[in-house]
C-alpha cells in the first residue's frame, strides 16, 4: 500500500485517480467475514485471512 498525497495545485483528475487507487488498496468492505486463503492483496483480504469474526465486525465498524 502506497503513501499517497494530492497537492492543492493538482487537477481533479489526479484527485480522482489517487482516491480510486487508495480504495483498491483497502478493498471492498462488503467482503469482510468471507473466507480467504490466498495471498492478501488488500486490507480486507488481510483481515479475512488472519482475524476472527468478531475482529472483522469491529473493523467494519471502524472503517465506516
What does this molecule look like?
This protein has 64 residues and is mainly α. It has a domain at 29-64. It is 53% helix and 0% strand.
Number of strands: 0
Instruction: Give the SSE order as H and E letters.
Output: HHH
Average pLDDT, to the nearest integer?
Answer: 77
Taking all Cα atoms into account, the compactness measure Rg is 14 Å
Count of helical regions: 3
Structural class: mainly alpha
Could you tell me the strand content as a percent range?
A: under 5%
Overall geometry: elongated
Q: Could you list the spans in which at least 5 consecutive residues all have pLDDT below 50?
A: none
Amino- and carboxy-terminal Cα gap? 20 Å
Please outline the major beta sheet: none
In helices, the fraction of residues equals 40-55%
Topology summary:
Elements: H1 12-26, H2 43-50, H3 53-63
Name the features.
3 helices, single chain, 64 residues, mainly alpha
Short summary:
With 64 residues, the chain is mainly α. It is built from 3 helices and no strands. It has a domain of 36 residues.
Amino acid at each position: 500500500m502506497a503513501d499517497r498525497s494530492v497537492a492543492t495545485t493538482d487537477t481533479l483528475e489526479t484527485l480522482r485517480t489517487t482516491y480510486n487507487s487508495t480504495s483498491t488498496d483497502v478493498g471492498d468492505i462488503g467482503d469482510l467475514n468471507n473466507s480467504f486463503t490466498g495471498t492478501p492483496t488488500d486490507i480486507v483480504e488481510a483481515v479475512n485471512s488472519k482475524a476472527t469474526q468478531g475482529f472483522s465486525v469491529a473493523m467494519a465498524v471502524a472503517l465506516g
